[in-house]
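User: Hey, quick favor. My workstation is busy. Could you predict this chain's structure for me?
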Amino acid sequence: MVLKLAWWCMLAADAPAPAAPTSAPGGGQGGGGLMSMLPLFVIIFVLMYLFIFAPQRKKEKKRRQMLDALGKGENVVTIGGIHGTIWQVKPDEIVLDVGNNQKMSFSRGAIARVDKGEGDESRK
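Assistant: No problem, here it is.
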């Protein structure tokens, strides 16, 4: 569907404009090259917004909500692949218990996801 629409726009942009009647000698048709390309640029921008920008913004909003909802006792995975249980939540950082009573401090943005599994029982 999208390819057909883009193909049709390219055909419309390449189609010659009907010759305007000229009364003066040496007259010809005007430029208008930019105006014929304008619909194509608008369509490309709309497609980029729909397929790139909007989903990315939605994904970022979902991630922000996940980071704001973090609480003590949740099992999480960091962007480095470290699994741990949240031991303390500070405004800009999270302290994880990574096992054997070992604590590690991470920036809040370093949390990749909340682990929905039961986790390791030895950490509790």
